[in-house]
Design goal:
With 115 residues, this protein is mainly α. 70% of the residues lie in helices and 3% in strands. The chain contains eight helices and two strands. The protein has a two-stranded antiparallel ribbon with strand order 1-2. A hairpin with a 4-residue loop joins strand 1 and strand 2.
Length: 115
């Protein structure tokens, strides 16, 4: 699967309470800001000094930085996908998450896989 989809799914899954259908749009917005910072050439140390930006998203910092360095051309795609997700109403967000789960999580039973 394309790395953009993998990171997109990881971010939306990390910052959404699937059980209650609540997304942390404020934190996903911070993720977008972090990606833009990395895109502008800021180093990991530069971003680490911005405590307000990192508050509650520290756990995502390393994989976002790695993605922005390894897939520089795809950062815009990820920012765009996250922006669309942020602008979507909650029911649509849950459908997007369900669709991404189909791609990344094998929900078939063991019996069905052996056929």
């Amino acid at each position: 699967m394309e790395p953009v989809f993998e990171i997109f799914y990881r971010v939306i899954k990390d910052y959404t309470d699937i059980r209650w259908g609540k997304t942390r749009d404020d934190l996903i917005s911070k993720i977008v800001k972090l990606l833009r910072s990395f895109q502008k050439g800021k180093s990991l140390d530069d971003v680490l000094s911005e405590k307000e930006l990192l508050h509650e998203v520290e756990g995502s910092l390393e994989y976002l930085y790695r993605f922005s360095k390894d897939h520089e051309k795809d950062v815009d795609k990820l920012i765009g996908a996250l922006s669309v997700f942020l602008k979507s109403p909650s029911p649509c967000k849950m459908k997007i998450i369900s669709l991404m789960e189909v791609f990344f999580e094998d929900r078939r039973s063991t019996k069905a896989r052996n056929i």
